[in-house]
TrEMBL record:
Family annotation (InterPro entries): KH_dom-like_a/b, KhpB, R3H_dom, R3H_dom_sf, R3H_KhpB
Domain of life: Bacteria
PANTHER family for the chain: PROTEIN JAG (PTHR35800), RNA-BINDING PROTEIN KHPB (PTHR35800:SF1)
Name of a matching Pfam family: R3H
Protein name: RNA-binding protein
SMART domains associated with the record: R3H
Lineage start: Bacteria, Bacillati, Cyanobacteriota, Cyanophyceae, Pseudanabaenales
CDD domains membership: R3H_jag (cd02644)
Native species: Pseudanabaena yagii GIHE-NHR1
Domain (R3H) ranges: 109-175
Length: 176
């Protein structure tokens, strides 16, 4: 749990630099099938609301989750900075990549529940229409989450298409 402690300390220090006094609790979440194969961990970094005013909580979440998403992006980038940035990195280095989810006041849990619902609606539409469906305006973390969710559907496949900031997720039936 050395990574968990370091990640909580890092986020707590960053919040302090931003002018917020808040503690961070860390827990280890269940890994996806691809993470189990690669020894990656999924850490949940929960910012305590104790001592934060409602206005401060809203600022830390930001409009449409922009601030909390940025904190999560920074966590994933900086806390995995020990890895080479080369896309041809060795398998052993990829195995050490951890995933960090930043939570505050239930925002992330509600957001993930809405993504789960969106994924289920996409699967239903693809099955009914027999055509692919594009999910637009998702962050890379949201696209990864839906990819992982839909891995359990044997008749469905997903891939990302396009370039940022217009990258989107395609959901379609597996071609037989």
């Amino acid at each position: 749990m050395e990574d968990a402690s370091a990640s909580a300390n890092w986020l707590q220090e960053l919040l302090g630099l931003m002018g917020y006094t808040a503690s961070v609790n860390t827990s280890l979440m269940e890994a996806s099938p691809s993470q189990v194969a690669s020894n990656s961990q999924n850490y949940w970094l929960e910012i305590s609301t104790e001592g934060l005013q409602e206005q401060q909580i809203q600022r830390l979440i930001g409009q449409d989750g922009a601030v909390i998403d940025s904190l999560q992006y920074l966590a994933n980038t900086l806390l995995n900075s020990h890895l080479p940035s080369d896309s041809n990195q060795s398998e052993s280095h990829r195995q050490n990549h951890n995933f960090y989810t930043v939570e505050l006041n239930g925002y992330r849990s509600k957001h993930l529940a809405s993504l789960h619902e969106l994924a289920e609606q996409a699967v239903q539409q693809v099955r009914e229409t027999q055509t692919e469906f594009a999910l637009k305006h998702l962050s890379s973390a949201d696209r990864r989450y839906i990819h992982q969710l839909l891995e359990s559907f044997p008749d469905i496949e997903t891939h990302s298409q396009g370039k940022e900031p217009n990258r989107h997720l395609i959901v379609k039936l597996v071609q037989s």
